[in-house]
Every structure is written in structure tokens, then in C-alpha cells.
Amino acid sequence: MKVKWLLTFPPELTGEPVTYALIKNFNLKINILKASIDLNVSGNLLVLADGTKNEIGSALAWLKTTGVSVDPGDSQIVWNEVLCVHCGACTAICPTKALSLDPSSWMVAFEGEKCLECGHCVPACPIGAISNNKGLNNA
Amino acid sequence: MAARKTYDEINQKIKEGNAVVVTADEVLDIVAEKGIREAAKYVDVVTTATFGPMCSTGAFMNFGHADPPIRMTNVLLNNVPAYAGLAAVDAYMGATETSLDKGINYGGAHVICDLVDGKSIRLNASSPGTDCYPRKNIETWINLDDVNEAYLYNPRNAYQNYSAATNTSDSPLYTYMGILKPGMGNVHYCTSGQLNPLLNDPYYRTIGIGTRIFLAGAQGFVSWMGTQFSSGRKRNGKGLPDAPGGTLAVSGDLRSMTTDFLKPAVFKDYGISMFVGIGVPIPILDEEMMSCVSVSDKDIFTTIEDYSVKRRDKPSLGTVSYEELRSGNINIQGRKIPTAPITSLHKSRQIAELLKQEIENGEFEISKPVQRFPLNSALKSLEIKNKEGR
To answer: How far away is chain A from the Cα of B263, in angstroms, using its nearest Cα?
Structure first.
């Protein structure tokens, strides 16, 4: 299974090799989608973690003991399907095609797994159908 | 025998429930199967539609007279200025007008949609006062049931083609074509292409003054040629301009409209516009009309303009077909650039389908234009000169 995590590092943990531990100790395939972190300051890492249910569960339990806060990475950008008029103005703005137009129905679709949380889609929507619940520091 | 049908014959079929009505998408398969000649005999009406941001949109309304009465000079609706340089209680709310306190987050388009949704709107008006209209101020609440007339009158909608936009500069551009990323990061285009009304009747044979149309859910009318009407534009072999051509001025009763097909649009750092849904039925009078409506996205070309050149005439980076634009990527100068529409094809198709059903149900008659549009209109520019013209 794949899960997306938004990891927030307090200053004292910015020097810890957390990603290394996730890979080495929990056998996870980690894909860093976005990083915004400075040593001894603080920061975020948006990662896509791929592993078995057990591996992911153990890694999550360990992460919680470290002091790194873990938020589900897919809950930050909210696309309101009811408000959306499916114009498509957000789709070429999105760097990862997380927002895309179905070439048959021409309806917008949002795939949270692909989303980098860059937030560029929020002002691109003329209807106000996309919002950023939290976002990264530089979003 | 060549297929020829009159407006009356088609309307008779509509009344009897026998008319063959298809959308401008569906007609392509019919033409491919039967050919123009047989398709012209078979199909009676083709429905076209568009749903995109159209800034030149607004509503006239008449508030009725208070007692004592007032000749309104300054009018605010939910704190958005309306134009009141008309008779005492007439006003025009333009879609792009912005709120005095909320800026572009609320404006004329929002007021119009709130009215259509049945909401109450705060009306503030002032006046110097006259012998016949002594009141100087009024504050009250109105809704769509309270006012006398309330109708959309949009001076320019439903462009026959429009240039696509990109940005070759190093900074993002915030435009009415959406956000254009730096370094040609994207190309945005509008119009519904092969579903677009005026691209299916390129010489305005059936779409003219008086044509009955679907306007945001209501039955409205084409009231005039739209502003910036440039029918004299160079055309390709199919009669289609590869840049903005004709436009429509349209009107219709707000009370019959729905905000499913009328929506405020807010473009960051540009301002307010309004998504307007328009559907136009095209009667298939003969083979020539069938030939016109058989136009497809691969036949329609548009110019790509560089919006980073902040001048009236923007340089062209080439022409591209709607088929290419719809593929999601186009090639400019050897680079693959992502494309996106700002006109909703999904909503446009919904409108074409709804209009088709209304005609099939005998609820919507087609109408012959009272007056056709000129074919040689050229777009003029505004030159800066003195009174003597120098």
C-alpha cells in the first residue's frame, strides 16, 4: 500500500536521518514529493511511503515516538467537486497532473496521491472550488 | 432531391414531436455515416453551446418607486456600485464591478447570481432630490420577486473563436485567461471549439438579431451583434476565422435562469468575470447548413498569443488546432507545452443536451433572424489624438 505523509520536524530533529530509518528499518520505499527543511530551524517533508500494511503501521508507530509530527498528506488540498464547473483552468497549473481533465467526460478529477501540495491550483480556480487546508511553509 | 427545409416546417416537426435534434458533437458521427446530403435530410436541428467566462455581462433592473419617490443617482447593491445614469429607478449591474469593501471577492456577478438564487440584496441609493422625486436617500432590501424587470443584457458573449494565451516571460502572469506560468509553462484556450455556436454558423446565416437561444437556463434572445464584432476577419477554407471573429449581444429574463449556468468567476489579480451558459439551435435548412455544423476540432485553428508582451497587439507564436489543444499538450518552438481550457466543455455539452431535450419536447421553437449581421465588420482601435485628429 501507498500512503502520503506530511512530516513536520521540530528544530531539534532536523538533523536526524529519519528518511534513512524509514527505508532501512521499516523497508519502506520512500518517494520525497516535496521538501522544505533547514537544519536546526524546522521544516516539512512530504513523502509517499510504499510498503506492506505492517511495515507502514510499524513505521508510523515509530515516527510518533520520535517527535516528528505526521499528518495525512492527502488532506491539505481540498477540491470541491460540487462547486467545480470543470473549466480546467487548474489543470495546466498543476505540476504533477494531480488535477486533470478526463479526455472523454471533460470533467476535472483530483488524485490526492499525486498532489505536491504546492497550492498553485488554489488561486487558479476562478470559482473558488479549491482550498488549501494547511499547506507547506512556502505554499 | 436536395434537402431544403423552412423554419416553419422545422417548427411544425418540433410541435409534432418528430424533429430530429442532435448536438454539434453527435452530428459528426451522423455526417461520417450518411454523408452531408443524407444527413441534411435526416437532421432538423443541431444544438451548439458554450460555458465560459464572459466579462461583458450584466443585468438591467427596475426597482419600482418608493413613497416619496427617489430619482436614484448613486446605486449600491450589496455595496457594489450599479450604473444609474438612466431613468429614476432603472439601473445596470455590470458583472465585473467590484464591491466597495470586499474588492474582487464580491462583485456584480455575485449580486446577479444572488438575485437568481432568490437571496435578498441590500439596496442603497442617493439623490440630490427634485420636485418630482423629493427623496434623497433610501436603504432597503430587494429580491427578484420585488423588482419590476430584471434581465441580463450582455453586450458581448459567445466569441466565434478566441486566441490561446501563453507567457514567455520569467514571471507568472495573472490574466482573464487564468494564470499563465513563466517560460511558456502552459497554454490556456477558451471557446468550446466544435460545439461553439458561431463556429457552427460561420457566416451568421441562422444566428442573427432575434434568434431564440438558451441563456443560463432561460429562453433568451440574440439582441444585437456583440461588441468588437469582427466578421471581416480572414477565414480559412471552412469559413472559420483563426482569431476572434463574431460575437453576440444577448438578453433574457433573470427570473427564468439558474445559477447552474451562471457563475461568478474571480481571476486572481485581474478581477471578476462571469461564466455564462449559452446554447444556440441551428436549423438544418439545407446541405450548406449541414456542411457548416459538421465542423470539428481538427478544422478549427486559433492563434497562440504571448501575453507577456503588454501591448494591444501581442506577437503570435503560431497557430494550432483545437484538436491539438484538446490533446493536453502542444508543440511550440520544439517544446511540449501543457494546455488547458478555461471554457468548460463538460458544461457546454450539458447545455447542448438540455437544449436538444427542450426542442425534442416541443418546449423550444427555433426562430429566423429578424436581421442578419454584417459580414464585413472590422475591429477598430482606439488612437490617442487631439480634437483635430492629429
So the answer is: 8
Burial (CB count <10 Å: 0-12, 13-18, 19+), residue B212:
middle
B330 contacts on A by Cβ (under 8 Å): none
Which residues 6+ apart lie within 8 Å of A107 measured at CB? A86, A101, B346
**Cis bond upstream, residue B68 (ω within 30):** yes
- Report d(CA B275, CA B261) in Å as an integer: 7
CA A72 to chain centre: 8
Please write the tens of the pLDDT for every residue from B182-199. Answer: 999 999 999 999 999 999
- Exposed/middle/buried for residue B268 (C-beta within 10 Å: 0-12, 13-18, 19+): middle
pLDDT at B138 over 60: yes
User: Which residue of B181, B263, B326 is in closest CB contact with A127?
Assistant: B263
C-beta atoms of A127 and B268 within 8 A: no
Contact A87 B342 (CB under 8 A): yes
Active site residues of B: 132
Residue whose entry in the numeric block shows the C-alpha cell 498553485: A120
C-alpha distances (whole Å) from B159 to each of A2, B44, B110, B241 are: 46, 25, 23, 11
Q: Would the CB atoms of B347 and A85 count as touching at under 8 Å?
A: yes
Whether A115 has a pLDDT exceeding 80, the answer reads yes
Give dist(CA A96, CA A100) in Å, integer. Answer: 9
Whole-number pLDDT of residue A74: 61
B16 φ, ψ (degrees, to nearest 5): -80, -5
Q: What is the DSSP string of B70-93?
A: B--SEEEETTEEEB--SSTTEEEE
Sign of the Cα pseudo-torsion (B127, B128, B133, B136, in order):
positive
Sorted by sequence, the CB contacts under 8 Å of residue B38 that are 6+ apart come out as none
Question: Which residues have a Cβ under 8 Å from the Cβ of B158 and sit 6 or more positions away?
Answer: B50, B54, B196, B197, B198, B226, B247, B248, B250, B278, B280
Residue B54 phi, psi dihedral angles, 5° rounding: -135, 105
Q: Do the Cβ atoms of B51 and A85 come within 8 Å?
A: yes
Cell of B74: 448613486
Question: Residue A135: pLDDT above 50?
Answer: no
CA distance B342 to chain A (A): 5
Distance CA B281, CA B11 (A): 12
Which of B2-11, B111-120, B153-162, B293-302 is predicted least confidently? B2-11
Q: Which residues of A touch B (CB under 8 A)?
A: 85-93, 101, 103, 105-107, 120, 123-124, 126-128
Q: What is the mean pLDDT of residues B342-347?
A: 98
Q: Do residues A88 and A109 lie in contact, with contact meaning Cβ atoms separated by under 8 Å?
A: no
Average pLDDT over residues B328-350: 97
CA distance A83 to chain B (A): 10
Tens-digit pLDDT profile for residues B59-75: 999 999 999 999 999 99
